[in-house]
Structure formats: structure tokens, C-alpha cells
Amino acid sequence: MFSRTDRRAASAEWRQRRAVLWAAAGAAALVLLIALEIAARHYGQPGPITDQVKGLVWAPKPGPLYGGLALMMVVLTWRQRFIAAGAAIGIDVVFALVRYAAGVGTTEGHAFGNGALWVMLGCAVIAVTRREGAERVLLLKGVGLGLLLVAGRKTGDTWLLITSKARPEVLDPYLAAADHALGSPSWLMGRMVRASGPIGDQLLHLVYAQLAVAAIVVALYQLRNVAAERRFPSHHLVRTFLVIGLLGPAVYMIFPVVGPVFAYGPGASGTGGVHWAVADIWPDTPPPVAVPHRVPYDEFTPRNCMPSLHTAWAVTIFIHSRRGPRLLRYAGAFWLIATLSATLGFGYHYGVDLIAGVVFALTVETALRSSDRGWDRPGIQLVGYGTAVFAALLVSYRWLPMEMAASPWLSGPLLVLAMTSMVYGYVRTTRRWEPAVAPAPQPAPQPEPA
User: 140, 147 in Cβ contact below 8 A?
Assistant: First the structure.
């Protein structure tokens, strides 16, 4: 048995290591932001740091500013939350009135959002100047969580800009050929969404565009007790969400793809066009099986298909909603199904993108959970297995697409089996990590009265 002194020493050492880890992560994030700022300036565009600073005065660009404020407020009391929300709304009203009086439009941004950013920065100042000890750390963690969510969106926008500028050629024909192994599901779903009419189209667009809102709802449920317990849970959705958004664009640079509606259709969201497409056949006619090759594309459309991060994020929302109430579990399942339908039905992704996205999400989630609870053999094995499967998928998509298209009855089930094996491994491993629930004590039998 360890003595009390030994336990205290071990706890102090663990806290010191954790502090060093957080400091290293903060330094790495700062270096990344500076690098992305320099890269964006190289292409003549403002980077994430510039966008963040502009958001203090100019009309903020679309992003989860009030979502970040909501996450920050999980560390506040209800009275403090009302004060923070009222201050943010008041600041936004003042900014809106000043813009209206000066005749300044908001064509490139939203009319509201500056107040949320000002309040988060104000809370950071209060934490440094008016709080001490654990209360200061807790408030700074809340501010950091909110600002990370906002910075994550701006960092993602810069990443997408870099992919479109740095990768003038795309590999869509390779994925279109490999997608024959799954029956070209994007073409099938595209026709189904078209047949669903405007109601189905608008519903899927709403789900696809508001994925961050669903994530914030699940995260707020997970963090609902922070103010009372004065500490954050060891693992929550926001961590996985941000790490997926950070690592995913790096794969975009390795495997640049624009998606079926761009490479085989008229484009969307104001980018692309028939003159850039390999052929204008989406979603009516599946692409023919032909020897794939690189094709040039415009310098505006993000190369953001491989892997499907919308799929990865929807999978993590589904996972983290499992411990919530029944309504939240149903919502998580609905969001996953609707997101998968939207990514295919709008022509934003190929079927093989979704398989890679599922494997990517489960690998990242396992790594974060293992890092939090301590690396053990099952965790290390599953992360290694997920990394190997993800790498094998990328290699097969790039170097074996013709073989996959020629033998769909073999390659298709193998792709699904690879994804299913990762799902099974994740479920089996995480169940071992769950604490065993002790059976409720039963009252001892009493003798019957005479």
C-alpha cells in the first residue's frame, strides 16, 4: 500500500506533467496560428489572427461567436451568465447602431457577434486581475474553450484557402473510380434528394450547415455541471471536434479532392463550373470506369473531401450523445444519418470519403480518450490499427482505383469490413474502459413472524 505522502507526490507529479503538456499544446497552437497567418498573407488573404482581431470592430464573419460565449459561460454562475449575455447583446446593439448611423453595411459579415468576442476577452482580463488560484484557472479554461471554438472556425477557413491555392490539381477521378466499389452512392443519393423536393433539400441543407450548433448542444449537456463542480470533465466533445478540424486539413493537402458536384457537375456555392468539370454528369449518369489522372481545378474551391470531416464530426456527435437523455440520443442519431445523406446527396463527397471519415473520427477519439485516462495496451493497439486502416484506405484509393472498380463485389465488402472492424474495435475497447457498475445491495431476508 502507498502511504499518503507517496500519493501526494504522485498527484503533484501528475499535475506537473499535465501542466507541461498543456503548455506545449498552447505553444504548438500559437506556432500553427502564426504559420497559417504567414501562409494566408502569402496568398494575399488575411489569416486567422487578423480575422480574429478584425472581429472586435468590423462586422464579424460567419462563425460560432455566441456558441463560443455559451461554452465559456459553463464556468459562470447563473447570475454571471445573465450579466455576460446581456453585456454581449448590449455591445452588439451599440455596434449595430453605430454602423447604421455611419452607413456601414455588413455585406461581408454578420451584424451581431462582436459583443460575444468582447465579453470573452473581458472575462480573460477579469480572470487575470480579479481571480486567484483554482478560480482563475477555471475561468481561463472557460475563456480558452470559447476562443478555441471561434479560432478553430477561422483556422479552418485559412486551411481551406491554402488547399485551393497550393493544390491546383485534384484527384477526383481516382475517387470516382474507387467509388464504383460502393456503387457510386453520391449519384444515387443525388437523385433521391432531387426527388424529395424542396422540403427534403432544405432540411438536409439545414442539418449540414448547422453541424456546429448540434455539437455545441451536446457539449453544453456534457459541461452542464462545471459551474457546480468547479472543474471540467476529463473528456468532452469539444476536444475531439477541434482536433479533427486541426488534423483533417493536413490530409486535404496530401489527397486534394473537390467532390462530385464540382468535378462532375456545375459546382456549388459560387465556385467551380461546368468548364472546370471532367464531365457534366452528376447526378444523372455515374462516371465511366476509365484510367484516372490528375485534373486542374480553380483556385477558389476548397480541396476538402478526403476524408469527410462532416462525417467525422457527425460520428463524434453521435458517440458523445450516447450518454445523454433519450431526446439527445435520438437527435445524435438523426444528425448522423442526415449528415451522411447530405454529404452524398448534395454531391460534396464520394462514398469512399465517408468510410475514411468514420475511421479517422474513431482513431482520433480513441487517441484522446487514451491520452486522458492513461495509455494502455488496448488503446495503443486500437490507435495503431485505426492509423493503419486509414493509411491503407488512402493508398488503395490512390494506387488501386482501377482494381477496385473492376472487382466491386470484392473491394466493396472489403471497404465496409475495414470500417466495421474499426467500429467494433472501438466499441469493444471503450466498453472495457467503462467503470463496472456494482449491483444494488439487496436487503437481507428477515424471518417470518411467528
Answer: no
Residue labelled with grid coordinates 467532390: 259
Please give the grid coordinates belonging to residue 187: 449519384
| pLDDT surpassing 50 at residue 439 | no
Pairing of strands 295-296, 169-170: antiparallel
Q: Is 305 helix (H, G, I), strand (E, B) or coil?
A: coil
**Grid coordinates representing 380?**
495503443
What was the pLDDT predicted at 440? 47
Closest CA to 246 of 36, 16, 388: 36
Question: Each residue of 236-264: pLDDT tens digit?
Answer: 999 999 899 989 999 999 999 999 999 99
DSSP string across 332-398: HHHHHHHHHHHHHHTTS--HHHHHHHHHHHHHHHHHHHHHHH---HHHHHHHHHHHHHHHHHHHHHH
Is residue 338 a contact partner of residue 207, using CB atoms and an 8 Å limit? yes
Q: The pTM is what?
A: 0.89
Q: What share of the chain is helix, strand, coil (3-state, %, to 5)?
A: 70, 0, 30
